[in-house]
């Protein structure tokens, strides 16, 4: 239900608990973001391999299957990123667009900070006889620089798209249909993110020697997006449960009520 002003929470929680929730969600977001950029494409993993039935073959692009076998291969850093979209969507729902956008910008600055510290460490002189993993550090730094620069560009665009689309759908549906804004924002922004980051890494030569053509790049983008797409679907019931559980933290300045338990069942 849309009101003329902000909704008054009838059961407000103490301010320090609201701050703790907000800071906790920010911590999840920033930790996942930084970790994903550090490990990035240092390793690719095969999450699953499926033998597809005949009726599914026309639905699955030939670029991501070998005959009738589909294998999901993704960079290991990608495992952290569903948590970033979960955090921004939950902050968007409970605390509003401005705080979610502020977190996106904070994450961008955090990446610059991390890159600056790592670069300073890389160029400072080594202490002979003391350092035990200089080669390892140099290797991680080499991957991290390319990942972080490419990721910062893709991230800023994708997360901004996520926040803006989330609130576009929220205004369009007058605060109803949480599933639509959660999935409609995340699925589009994740396609932007996958395409942007992997394309940047490909054209800068940071995806490994075996990724030598656009077909291989398309395979990686599709696999990454399928993983993010499925993550967004599985994320929806978790978002609903979290929003209901944390309904007393709600402070949306746009004036939309959270769905009641009875409404949630009919919120399609």
TrEMBL record:
Major localisation:
membrane
Q: The organism sits in which domain of life?
A: Bacteria
Transmembrane stretches in the record are 21-49, 69-91, 103-124, 144-166, 187-205, 211-230
Q: Which GO terms describe its cellular component?
A: plasma membrane
Where in the cell is the protein located? Cell membrane
Entry-linked Pfam families: Vut_1 (PF02592)
What keywords sit in the KW lines? Cell membrane, Membrane, Transmembrane, Transmembrane helix, Transport
**Record GO terms (molecular function):** transmembrane transporter activity
Tell me the InterPro entries matching this sequence: YhhQ
Q: How does it sit in the membrane?
A: Multi-pass membrane protein
What are the boundaries of the signal sequence? none
- Function, in words: Involved in the import of queuosine (Q) precursors, required for Q precursor salvage.
The entry's family comment says:
Belongs to the vitamin uptake transporter (VUT/ECF) (TC 2.A.88) family. Q precursor transporter subfamily.
Could you tell me what this protein is called?
Answer: Probable queuosine precursor transporter
What is the protein's species of origin? Natronogracilivirga saccharolytica
